[in-house]
Write a sequence for this structure.
């Protein structure tokens, strides 16, 4: 039995489908099972609740061969540490009884900026706690997601622009969430691995935000530009969107660390590169989202 946390999210939802397509038995932890993708509910076991709750994870992890671990966003967390390691306490305690764990993590370990990278710093600290249990663990370490651009589909449609604190000329190995799900599925289905390792998951190319704007313009057939915004303005926007002060600051710290090369330390190989290009993703995913406005 493979247990999936956050099965209604972007990565988790695609992962559930990948595993079902492979014929694997799947159990999900869901606060609202009605939010599962159409056709999924009748094909999975459901444990209702939050994977922050000890009783929920104890039930869900019972006789589990593997667990996919993803901490959901908590905009109102009192600290970024509480949002990750605090949330994960019950789950980490229960992981000692499962066969293997695959988790969502981030690039940056060992870089000069890893200790001041907000969400990334907290994610790596949570990974250390999971590793300390002795459970076989694969931390999928990733850069920013192509899919984050969907959040600005409205701005692209109405203003011909998208915005952020990232340097326009910083090349990053942007990755599509569907490729992350595919890597997670492969590892969850593979019963041969042991020990604890990081598994980098990079997009197929390093691309700057200015290059992203050029590709979006070409795909949509109209001009689209990227506009870098000052850090404090970005933090104010994150606060306006419902994030607590510590969480808004953590987003800013992560963005600044990425500007300083947080995502650039891993050497690209054939094994750690995924297939979906940004252009392909724009055609198949971003274009329908923009056309909806």
């Amino acid at each position: 039995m493979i247990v999936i946390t956050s099965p209604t999210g972007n990565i988790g939802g695609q992962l559930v489908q990948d595993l079902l397509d492979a014929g694997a038995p799947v159990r999900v932890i869901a606060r609202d099972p009605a939010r599962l993708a159409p056709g999924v509910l009748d094909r999975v076991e459901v444990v209702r609740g939050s994977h922050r709750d000890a009783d929920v994870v104890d039930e869900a992890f019972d006789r589990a061969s593997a667990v996919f671990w993803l901490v959901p966003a908590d905009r109102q967390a009192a600290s970024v540490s509480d949002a990750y390691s605090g949330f994960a306490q019950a789950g980490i305690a229960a992981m000692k009884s499962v066969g293997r764990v695959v988790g969502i993590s981030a690039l940056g370990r060992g870089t000069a900026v890893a200790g001041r990278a907000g969400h990334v710093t907290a994610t790596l600290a949570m990974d250390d706690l999971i590793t300390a249990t002795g459970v076989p663990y694969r931390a999928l370490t990733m850069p920013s997601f192509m899919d984050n651009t969907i959040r600005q589909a409205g701005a692209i449609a109405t203003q011909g622009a998208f915005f952020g604190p990232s340097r326009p000329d910083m090349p990053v190995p942007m990755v599509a969430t569907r490729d992350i799900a595919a890597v997670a599925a492969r590892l969850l289905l593979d019963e041969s691995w042991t020990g604890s390792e990081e598994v980098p998951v990079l997009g197929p190319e390093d691309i700057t935000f200015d290059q992203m704007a050029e590709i979006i313009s070409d795909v949509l057939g109209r001009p689209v530009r990227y506009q870098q915004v000052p850090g404090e303005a970005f933090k104010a926007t994150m606060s306006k969107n419902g994030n607590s002060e510590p969480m808004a600051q953590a987003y800013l710290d992560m963005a600044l660390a990425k500007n300083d090369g947080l995502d650039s330390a891993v050497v690209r190989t054939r094994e750690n590169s995924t297939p979906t290009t940004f252009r392909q993703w724009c055609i198949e995913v971003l274009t329908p989202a923009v056309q909806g406005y």
